[in-house]
Every structure is written in C-alpha cells, then in structure tokens.
Amino acid sequence: MDLSRTEMLIGKEGVERLSNCRVAVFGLGGVGSFCVEALARAGIGHIDLFDHDTISESNINRQLFALSTTIGKDKVTIAKERIKSINPKCLVTEHKVFYSPENSSAYRLSNYDYVVDAIDTVTSKLELIVQANALLVPIISCMGTGNKLNPQMLEVSNISRTSVCPLARVMRKELKSRGITSLKVVYSKETPIRTESVIDPTSGKLIAGSTSFVPSVAGLILAGEVIKDLTINRK
Question: Which domain holds residue 77?
Fold first, then answer.
C-alpha cells in the first residue's frame, strides 16, 4: 500500500506509528463504515470490527459496505474483505456481536490505542464509554446523524458543550450521572427534521430518516480525529 502522499502530511514517523496502532470500531452502519474505510486507507495496522448485524436493502442508501451483491451478509465479514483489498497487510479482527453491559467484560479495551463509538444504542454507547474511560483508553463517540440533511453543521466538541442534538442531550445527562463530563464527540447542531413515524417491524424501534451524505461525513470526521490524535496531536 503506497502511503507516500499521507507521509507528506504526517511524516514517516506518523505513518509508522499508524501501522503499529490497533483501533476498534464499534458499529458498522452509515457512520462506522465510512470511518473504517478512512482508517484503512490511512494505514492503521490492526482494526477490530464490532457489529452483530447483516446487510439489508435499506442500508444501501447510506452504508459503504451495503450493495445489491452483499445483502444478507455479515457486516464484519464484508468490512474485513474490503479492508484487506485496500491494505492486505492490515490485520483485521471480526467480532460479530452486539456489544452490551452483559458481554462487555469479554472484550479488553486496553488492547486498543483508540476506540471509535459508532453505535446507535444508548445503553451500549454508555457501557463502551464508561469502560474506555475507566481504562484511560482514548475514545471518540458519534452522536445522532438521523433526520439530518446538512453535513456542514457537524462539528467536533466535548460532550459537555453539545447542544440541539437529542442523543447528545441524553448522553450528556447519563454520563454526568456516572461521573463523566469529558468526552470527544462528533455531533450536529442541525435541528432534526420531523418525519412520519415509522416502526421497524423487527426491533420495534422508531426508524429515523437518513441520507448518503450526513452519516458518511460524520464517519470521516471520526477517522480524521483518530488519525490526528495518534500522530499530529500526540507530539
């Protein structure tokens, strides 16, 4: 994999640093899939993928790994295949699992140089953040990207300084009750668009509207922060 153009920006030492880093990405949906893509192309040497789901037709409008030819296949498997086609030297570990408080102890976050939270379930997000915080493992978390149309309103901030985003409001309150007030997040100041209520027949949850260009941008921002923190901001 030729990283000469990346090396022009972060230096040879930065490229070598990334090749020796292990990053875990939790959630391979619209946000997580694009984050994984950017991490792989930046030369991260070992990527762990966490997602229990298979690809469905409704994923195609926003998820990088979702194609007409991948419907029904495990997201972690398709993600691994794509990473290996980008960088054959990258070590990829698949975890087909729904991360939760019940099984979190089975996964050692201390193994990672950085953790990316692209999960859309509050209980799982909270557990992941609490565990990473306890172990002093760097983590960045994505807030809500559903029912949004303006990627220019995405920004990076501390959870304590977020506003507008309903998910950020819930996370801010729940984390504060757990003694956590500092967390790097990607969130949007765009007021969510009101849509007709649609219930997922499988999960029973409300389905948010989505686009190809808001979750993807959020995922790329996540990856950018990880790369900068592991190289430029580390100096």
Answer: 4-230
- Closest CA relative to residue 30, chosen from 206, 200, 207: 207
Confidence (pTM): 0.96
Dmax over CA atoms of the chain, in Å, equals 51
Q: Render pLDDT for 123-182 as a digit per residue (tens, 0 to 9).
A: 999 999 999 999 999 999 999 999 999 999 999 999 999 999 999 999 999 999 999 999
First-to-last alpha carbon distance for the chain, in angstroms, is 25
CATH number for the domain including 219?
3.40.50.720
**Secondary-structure percent of the chain, ordered helix, strand, coil, rounded to 5:** 40, 15, 45
The secondary element (H helix, E strand) that includes residue 168 is helix 166-177
Question: Which tokens sit at 115?
Answer: 């953790």
Rounded Cα gap, residues 205 and 211, in angstroms: 19
